Amino acid sequence: AVAPNNLVAGVALNNPVSIVLGPNGNSFFVSDSGNNRVVQFFRDGVTLPRLAAGGNGAGAFPNQLSAPQGIFFDSASNSLIIANSGANDVRRWVLGQNIGTIIGNGVQVGNAVQPLAGPIGVTLDSAGNLYVSDSGNNRIVLIRPGQITGTIIIPGGAVAGAAAATPTSLNNPTAIKLDSQGNLYVADTNRNRVQLFTCIRVPA
Hints:
0% of the residues lie in helices and 46% in strands. It is mainly beta. The protein has a six-stranded mixed beta sheet, with no helix packed on it. The chain has a four-stranded antiparallel beta sheet with strand order 3-4-5-6, with no helix packed on it. A hairpin with a 6-residue loop joins strand 9 and strand 10.
């Protein structure tokens, strides 16, 4: 174990979900979903783990998280991008700060906003565009920097018991990963497969 009993601030981990390396690879972050927080562990075996985000109970206030899932470390802003699944949004949490900022919460459709539903996976591209696996809506959403609503780049439509899967019929997409060529890998969980979407293009 990286810490005695995996204790952080006197509380053991509860349903840890996602892990990402931190600055310089000297530490790593864990989304401690059951405790509504993200914690930082250090690889030197000496530095005590610390709270990185949330930890103030489940909720939607700026100092809270609710069942955080996927996390991504953005070195450009020294911040964590967190799929705040229980609150149906995505937060940016700068390291060392006590509050986070909502950077994604839905899709703009005309004058209305369709909210995210239990987002699980998050990642950024080199231009700072945010990709979200909007799991409850069976789709992938792209949100540009400075906006909190985005566009659907991989549509949903898949439901349990539906007809044979097609390349775009996601069913509960979870983890996502971009490579350096702009290809997007999606864990299509309820279809029991991983899908590769090549050369994702950002809508004009």
